[in-house]
Design goal:
247 residues, alpha+beta, 9 helices, 49% helix, elongated
């Protein structure tokens, strides 16, 4: 029994030494809206055909940088894929993603809900760091359904950067949750003004027009969005068709 335990300990030590001496690679994890990561994502390496983890995650830094080493015992060596590791990434408020880490690669996490498949406003990528931090706090509060806290942080974000279209869009969302449709409409109109190519507020405005029984306005706003992006947003067609049926 003692001999077997010593043998297993030796094998584990050799594996640890092998991993520790392996080359480290780096990848980056970012959010589709450009907001900073508020917490570290969970990164789960996949198992190879040899039923061992493809890699070991060494560090996850606050800026989203990931340091990892590939477990060379997991598969035959191939220089073309020496830095590759398949992982599942989970982060609250974002879609789980199964991706392959590669050295210097950037992984983009997409928000859940209406954000799925949404385009990213260029204003989010250009927003100053304090505005993006406030926006990120708002996103977390919205995910936890803490509407007043989310509203406060989104308002701070647009106060810092009045052209932050995604912050205006999400501000409108939390205002609706608090039964403030008039204020929500104003926020979504600000989003459209800040970035006319950002599709999400068009959907939000069209939905509100339908709720308030203004199908003609819904047809107009949804039609503009469909003309700009006729392929990616099936919800636009649903709202557009529903509005036509209501006229």
């Amino acid at each position: 029994m003692g001999t077997n335990s010593a043998f297993r300990a030796g094998i584990l030590l050799l594996a640890a030494v092998a991993v520790a001496s392996a080359q480290s690679y780096h990848a980056s994890i970012v959010t589709e809206d450009g907001s900073p990561l508020q917490t570290s994502p969970q990164i789960i390496p996949a198992l190879s055909d040899r039923l061992v983890q493809e890699c070991v995650i060494q560090n996850i830094f606050g800026n989203g940088s990931v340091q990892y080493v590939v477990n060379y015992r997991s598969r035959p060596y191939d220089p073309a894929t020496a830095d590759a590791c398949t992982v599942t990434i989970r982060l609250k408020g974002y879609q789980a993603a199964q991706v392959t880490l590669r050295n210097d690669a950037t992984i983009v996490l997409k928000r859940v809900g209406l954000h799925e498949g949404s385009t990213v406003s260029a204003t989010a990528l250009n927003a100053p760091e304090p505005a993006r931090k406030a926006y990120g706090k708002g996103v977390n509060a919205m995910t936890d359904e803490k509407w007043p806290a989310a509203q406060k942080n989104f308002e701070k974000a647009v106060e810092i950067d009045p052209d932050y279209a995604q912050a205006w869009s999400d501000l409108g969302e939390v205002l609706v949750k608090q039964s403030k449709p008039t204020e929500a409409r104003a926020a979504w109109e600000k989003a459209v003004q800040a970035d006319p190519k950002y599709i999400k507020p068009y959907i939000q405005l069209a939905r509100l027009d339908m709720v308030e029984k203004h199908p003609e306005d819904a047809i107009t706003i949804a039609g503009k969005a469909v003309a700009m992006n006729p392929l990616e947003f099936p919800e636009l067609y649903f709202v557009y068709a529903a509005a036509i049926r209501s006229t």
